[in-house]
Amino acid sequence: MDYYRQTQLKDYNSLKTEAQAKIFCKPTTIEELRKCLSDYPDEKKLIIGGGCNLFFTKDFDGLVIYPHIKGLREISDDDDEDDDVFLEVNASENWDELVAYCVERGFVGLENLSLIPGTVGAAPIQNIGAYGAEVKDVIREVVAIDMETGKIVSFSNAECEFGYRDSIFKRTNKYLIVSVVIHLKRSFVYTPKYADLNKELEEIEEPTVEDVRNAVIRVRQRKLPDERVLPNAGSFFKNPYITKESADKILVEYPTLPVFPYKDGLVKTSAAFLIDKVGYKGKRIGDVGTYPNQPLIIVNYGTTDGNDIVRFMKEVQGAVNDKFGIELEPEVRIY
């Protein structure tokens, strides 16, 4: 395995911002992964998968690891029911290719997460979710390398400490995910969860798992830009949790505000709705703007400087906070 110095990272983040990595490597085996960790124990480390949820504002003064470890196998044990399917998937596999693989075989559980860009290893870090589903719903186990000790460690679903777009892996930045074990089913009955998806399927009496995947793809393609054509990192902000009292005040002026019950007196609302109502849907400043069909997505029209994106982000955050008293939190990682 070779190490590269001062490597350009523009092609390794979907917002296409420029930055140099002090050291860069592409391990292709677990042994090489552990070697690069032991070769540079004192360097700051960044693991990049598909690069679809991060961008750079400056050079990275440390080791960037870009693993290329693929593989997928079906596993089983004596306690499995006939309806159960367990797959162990290596971290560098493409996420949507995995979803397609499962749907083609009638394996149920990932279809609502179709067309999300990135790799399998990134999915539990962010606890990716869409259309009423989250990846935590199907994860049985995550296998990782402790970057401090080099040891292989295994996390049960509960030990992953999943939250909304959150996990122990995101919070600690201590673990390099090697593989994910997912628990799927063979039987399927469509359960209405999400309005846009329900509408897309309303003319199909009994949707199949393939129908759901195709519907999700159609909805996403209408709403969301292809990062290969218009650089973006997907949903830029998290949907905020606010008090019911705050929601009630906003509902007086905006009765169509989406409100979803949560817990402890909190409700979840739509960041896209708030951004729209402060006039930032489709707004562009220089080479950065929000996507006209979905204001939750910040798109790059041509800048290579991540600081331009940060400035635009702060302007959106300020407008929402001034109007609604709500602080939007980035979902995207900024380096």
UniProtKB/TrEMBL annotation:
Annotated active site: 165, 235 (proton donor), 331
Principal location: cytoplasm
E.C. code: 1.3.1.98
GO molecular function: FAD binding; UDP-N-acetylmuramate dehydrogenase activity
Gene3D superfamilies to which the protein is assigned, alphabetical: 3.30.465.10, UDP-N-acetylenolpyruvoylglucosamine reductase, C-terminal domain, Uridine Diphospho-n-acetylenolpyruvylglucosamine Reductase, domain 2
Localization (cell): Cytoplasm
Residues of the FAD-binding PCMH-type domain: 16-187
Entry GO CC: cytosol
Coiled coil spans: none
Matches recorded under HAMAP family: MurB
Function according to Swiss-Prot or TrEMBL: Cell wall formation.
Protein name: UDP-N-acetylenolpyruvoylglucosamine reductase
Protein's organism: Dysgonomonas mossii DSM 22836
Gene that produces this protein: murB
